[in-house]
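User: Can you recover a sequence for this backbone? Please restate the input before giving your answer.

Assistant: Of course. Working from this structure:
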């Protein structure tokens, strides 16, 4: 039986808190609850996110403790002023809670400083304990997330790339269908540009999170950067095609142009299929190839029609579409060959 992500997260949190409590008891620490709370709250949906939040928590706790301590010695030790500092720190803690985890933790630490100032006092001993317990809790969370039901962001990435390439393949099919049939672009095609980039940005966010996992693995980062760069370039050319498509209105294709467009479409779909098989680590059934031969025929035929009494604007747009499709195919082929 496969456990749900939230169930795995709950088990991780319970184990992390228990470990923090045991370590605190063993070393007779008086502020073990800080480590326990940190270990529980920095755990996230994936190991990479847990690492990211742990590093942010450590860094901003140190900054917040330093700034809070300086304020503690600067602000007059009067209850009214300390309450004002608590109110300000609470406001910014909640304000940044949904926008910036780092800044929220920064103001949380300042809040802790002045809560202790009101209840008792803030000392250098508490300063060291706050930082040390935060560090212990964060390390426990990272280790627990890595060993207990580890949730790797790489698995999500492996699912997102095929989804993106499937959407790209559908867009290519729609583009050629409209070109060959000389139809007006469908509304769904116009929205595909935004949908493609939405998928790409989701993929990029996951790749950025993967960098935290790679701090503890041997996966080469350069390979990941190349993948993202090639995908970004390919999508740039494809979205350029989609944006130009609505400008094509009054142009007539010859039978030769239609045949070559169909050949061009077939080559590009085969290349995309090869790339997807390669990424999914399947046996590649075909070979990637260039569209230069077909493209030369299309360009020559387009130039001949342009010299006739055809609408120059439409044929220039058509030529631009072909140019961007060529660049798109080059990016896909380059992407494939870099990973061979």
């Amino acid at each position: 039986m496969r456990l749900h992500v939230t169930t795995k997260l709950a088990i991780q949190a319970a184990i992390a808190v228990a470990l923090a409590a045991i370590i605190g008891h063993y070393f007779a620490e008086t502020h073990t609850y800080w480590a326990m709370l940190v270990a529980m709250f920095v755990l996230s949906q994936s190991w990479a996110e847990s690492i990211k939040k742990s590093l942010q928590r450590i860094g901003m706790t140190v900054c917040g403790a330093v700034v809070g301590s300086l304020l503690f010695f600067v602000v007059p030790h009067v209850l009214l002023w300390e309450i004002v500092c608590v109110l300000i720190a609470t406001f910014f803690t909640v304000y940044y809670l949904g926008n910036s985890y780092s800044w929220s933790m920064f103001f949380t630490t300042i809040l802790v400083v002045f809560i202790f100032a009101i209840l008792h006092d803030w000392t250098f001993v508490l300063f060291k304990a706050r930082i040390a317990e935060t560090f212990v809790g964060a390390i426990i969370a990272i280790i627990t997330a890595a060993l207990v039901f580890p949730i790797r962001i790489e698995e999500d990435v492996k699912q997102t790339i095929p989804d993106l390439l499937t959407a790209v393949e559908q867009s290519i099919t729609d583009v050629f269908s409209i070109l060959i049939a000389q139809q007006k672009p469908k509304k769904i095609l116009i929205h595909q540009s935004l949908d493609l980039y939405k998928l790409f940005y989701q993929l990029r966010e996951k790749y950025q999170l993967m960098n935290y996992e790679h701090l503890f693995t041997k996966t080469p980062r350069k390979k990941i950067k190349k993948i993202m760069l090639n995908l970004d370039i390919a999508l740039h050319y494809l979205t350029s095609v989609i944006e130009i498509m609505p400008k094509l209105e009054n142009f007539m294709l010859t039978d030769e142009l239609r045949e070559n467009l169909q050949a061009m479409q077939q080559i590009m779909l085969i290349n995309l299929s090869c790339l997807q098989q390669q990424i999914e680590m399947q046996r590649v059934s075909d070979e990637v190839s260039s569209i230069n031969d077909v493209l030369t025929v299309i360009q020559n035929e387009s130039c001949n029609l342009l010299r006739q009494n055809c609408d120059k604007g439409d044929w220039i747009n058509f030529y631009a579409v072909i140019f961007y499709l060529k660049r798109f195919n080059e990016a896909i082929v380059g992407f494939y060959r870099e990973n061979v």
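That completes the design. The chain has two domains: 5-147, 153-338.
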